[in-house]
Amino acid sequence: ARPSGEGPFPAVLVLHEVFGLNADIRSQADRLAAAGYLALAIDLYTAGGRAKCLIATFRTMAAGEGPAVGDVDAGRAWLQARPDCTGRVGVIGFCQGGGFALLAATRGFDAAAVNYGPLPKNARDALEGACPIVASYGSRDVAMRGAAGKLERVLADLGVPRDVKEYAGVGHSFLNQGTLGKLGVFERVLGLSYDAVAAEDAWARILAFFDVHLRTP
Predict the structure, then answer these.
(1) Is 205 helix (H, G, I), strand (E, B) or coil?
(2) Which end of the chain has the smaller Cβ count within 10 Å, N or C?
């Protein structure tokens, strides 16, 4: 997704949640382009079918290394090499992609936006030398309970510039819309419901954070 005009533009790599590179993730890339960022949404499920890739990708995230991490590195390098890119590249991820965005924060990116992403094991060691991080979690997200507070403490200890917020009354995937398509009736049951108020506030924080850390040389 490319902004209008000649550029060059700062860039953002977009990492999808467990449902893959769907229309919702493409819309997130379009939103970044409308805000003036060259956005690349990559597909982490291309090496042997969705089920096989889903398992392998989660294993890679847990281990901190593997094919999906290589895809993230390749996406950053591809963006940086484009003539319409300033060379400054951020990363944004949702759910599973948020976990990869945390891993990527020490891999040459200039800023990372983590949306309800699981924290790596030994988070303090894993995030040593991380780029600036903006993170958003929901208080009703049982799987990520306590993650926002822990991440804030770790980043503060490491002296990493940050903006970490937990939104009261919202659950997982509150920035994503229609992730299950025709099965969307199950989203609320699974605690995956979109929340417009929290989502717009989170996006305002993300774009303000990116403006500081990606537009400044």
Answers:
(1) helix
(2) C
What is the CB neighbour count within 10 angstroms for residue 82?
17
Round to whole Å and give the CA distance between 44 and 16: 8
Cα separations in angstroms, 98 against 83, 114, 151, 182: 28, 5, 13, 25
Contact between 95 and 74 (Cβ < 8 Å): no
Residue type present at position 46: T
Backbone CA torsion sign across 31, 53, 109, 124 = positive
Instruction: With H, G, I as helix, E, B as strand and everything else as coil, classify residue 119.
Output: coil
Residue 63: pLDDT over 80: no
State yes or no: pLDDT of 183 exceeds 50: no
Query: Which DSSP symbol is given to 181?
Result: G
Pick from 139, 68, 77: nearest CA to 108: 77
Q: How many CA atoms lie within 13 A of 217 on its CB side?
A: 1
- Cα 65 to Cα 21, 90, 198: the distances in Å are 21, 20, 32
Contact in structure between 112 and 90 (CB atoms under 8 Å): yes
Q: Are 94 and 28 in contact (CB under 8 A)?
A: yes
Write b or e for each residue in 27-43: b if 16 or more Cβ atoms lie within 10 A of its Cβ, otherwise e: ebbebbbeebbbbbbbe
Return mean pLDDT, the chain. Answer: 88
Residue type, 59: R
CA dist., res. 102 & res. 61, Å (int): 10
Give one word for 95, left, alpha or beta, with left for phi > 0 and alpha for psi -120 to 50.
left
